[in-house]
């Protein structure tokens, strides 16, 4: 079975999306890219995360052609491919329908720096214009709008988060949902006071060395 480890990750992080309240049922999708083999593991279309097994995860090539797996890949395969083509630093994509991020997307609001943890994306989270799900138009909108950020809101749809590995993309999605909730609640209560641009620049610089260093193999 090709990309066995990556397939298991898709299963594991699909369940984590549910556990974290970032989606429901079969909503959203995940993928990861193995650049050495030029193959992508992506969840199957329309199957609840609780029912997906490693062998159900679909393997496609960089053109989206199915290489292995009995199911059709996610209907949003197009924007996964577009993101991998656009950004060589991206090796994982997580798409959610998380409530607060999607609320902002339905209001057509970008997510500004109301809290420094927006730095998981950058100094903000941009908004991609609306396009029908699963279309080439949506794929272009996502790839064009994300720029150098690690997250992008999809108008009237949800959130896309990216990373160098699936864990990082998941963390981006989780933290941005937290910041989206703060921003929405602040807007309900009054006018949010945003983190200043120069402070966000300092935050982003500190984020470069945040966390544990990569340890050498034993």
From TrEMBL:
GO terms for molecular function: aldehyde-lyase activity; metal ion binding. Residues 8-184 form the Class II aldolase/adducin N-terminal domain. GO terms for biological process: pentose catabolic process. SMART domains: Aldolase_II. Keywords: Lyase, Metal-binding. One of its GO terms (cellular component) is cytosol. This is L-fuculose 1-phosphate aldolase. It comes from Desulfuromonas thiophila. The lineage of its organism: Bacteria, Pseudomonadati, Thermodesulfobacteriota, Desulfuromonadia, Desulfuromonadales.
């Amino acid at each position: 079975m090709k990309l066995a480890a990556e397939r298991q990750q898709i299963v594991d992080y699909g369940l984590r999306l549910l556990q974290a309240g970032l989606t429901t049922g079969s909503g959203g999708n995940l993928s990861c890219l193995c650049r050495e083999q030029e193959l992508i593991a992506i969840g199957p279309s329309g199957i609840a995360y609780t029912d997906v097994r490693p062998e159900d995860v679909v393997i496609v090539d960089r053109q989206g052609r199915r290489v292995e797996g009995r199911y059709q890949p996610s209907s949003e395969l197009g924007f996964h491919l577009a993101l991998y083509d656009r950004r060589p630093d991206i090796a994982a994509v997580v798409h959610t329908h998380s409530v607060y991020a999607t609320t902002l997307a339905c209001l057509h609001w970008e997510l500004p720096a109301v809290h420094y943890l927006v730095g998981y994306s950058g100094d903000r989270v941009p908004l991609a214009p609306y396009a029908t799900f699963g279309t080439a138009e949506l794929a272009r909108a996502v790839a064009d709008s994300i720029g150098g950020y690690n997250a992008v809101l999809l108008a009237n749809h949800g959130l896309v988060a990216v990373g160098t590995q699936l864990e990082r993309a998941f963390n981006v999605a989780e933290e941005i949902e937290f910041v989206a909730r703060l921003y929405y609640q602040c807007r309900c209560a009054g006018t949010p006071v945003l983190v200043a641009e120069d402070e966000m620049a300092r935050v982003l610089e500190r984020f470069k060395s945040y966390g544990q260093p990569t340890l050498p193999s034993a």
